[in-house]
Description:
Blueprint: H1 3-14, H2 19-33, H3 37-48, H4 53-80, H5 83-101, H6 107-122, H7 124-135, H8 141-169, H9 171-192, H10 199-202, H11 210-213, H12 216-220, H13 223-239, H14 245-252, H15 257-282, H16 287-303, H17 311-339, H18 345-373, H19 376-397
Helix pairs in contact: 2-8, 2-9, 3-4, 4-5, 4-6, 4-7, 4-18, 5-6, 5-7, 5-9, 7-18, 8-9, 8-15, 8-17, 13-17, 13-18, 13-19, 15-17, 16-17, 16-19, 18-19
Amino acid sequence: MSVTSLRRAARETVSGLPREFWWLWTSTLVNRLGAFVATFMALYLTLDRGYSASYAGLVASLHGLGGVVSSLGGGVMADRLGRRPTLLVAQASTAVFVALLGFVHDPVAIAAVAFLVGMASNASRPAVQAMMADIVRPEDRVRAFSLNYWAINLGFAVSSMAAGFIAEFSYLAGFLIEAGMTMACAVVVFLKLPESRPAGDAQGGGKGGAEASVGLTAVLRDRRFMGVVGLSFLVALVFQQGSVGLPVAMGRAGFTPADYGVAIAVNGILIVALQIPVTRFIEHRDAKRLLVVSSLLAGYGFGLTAFAGSVGVFALTVCVWTLGEMINAPTQTGLVVRLSPVHGRGRYQGVYSLSWSLAALVAPLMSGAVIDRLGARWLWGMCAAVGMVAAVGYGALMRRLPKEEPVAFAEGAVGAGAAAGERSSEVSTA
Length: 430
């Protein structure tokens, strides 16, 4: 492919999206540039504090439990209070709790603050995804979700490399840097992002309104959607091992935090380099096949980790499951939007986020116990098995998907022209 073709492909990938999307994208990027806790918590507890892998798994699970609590609450808040207030509260609270985590030393206090960090940080996820669905046209959503995911991993590629060396100097500095960057995200939201909630939600869901028809009970009774949530949990359980099982296993094998940082940075670097062309390849392809393939790549990618004995081989296994991640993330997020009624997006995204939060709760307990009692090879074999089960599940569950509904926005809300396709072709450079 020529340079001209590459430039044209890049231009077509980023064109036509609203200005508000790019501010939300910027907030995501800034947040991930400062990421530290989720990536290096296991190393901090086992290497710096001297705790066991099981204790590190317990703390990470409490972090996940906080996410379980806030996933549903964040979704309800996004529908009732609005996307913007939910983001502001979640990001400001996360900054405070992350900073506090760097100063507590008692084991019980560490566990309690980790729970609060998990609760605050995960509360923003349903609001981000619902706002993105609100302000972007249906035909552009897979592209928009891919670009947002690209921002996450651009920040992750930079922060994971830097954090590995920061950890060798001072874990406290890492906590404070993340707190500062997260507060910067809250400032971006406050200054640049108006509310995007659709008209029915903005009216408060009066008697017989749309909001009443998509309460949490209605979401939980949606069998097709809950099947997708269950399969998402299995895939998330595998992907979680990149930040939970992998650092512990590498540490047990004698590798340093910097070694882990180099290996896991491959994940972010590959996504930064390949997410845009991969998105162009998958954008109009069958979602069922994409999800089956991505599940197999995730499971077998982690399964191959059982044979890794050097940083280079660990990095090669990361390449395999990263390809599955690049396919899975935008495809699955776009599928959730397609299955969600317009006035229940916050709740649907909250329940979908719950699958990842539950995985964040279960994965550390599972990985810590398996590594301590059976060894890391058993963990990687289990990942391969779970990936295969998820692939079979997607193949059995997916049928014809419903058409997306047009959106009616509140007067003056962001993206009021989305349903009519009124979008400027100019891209904000902010």
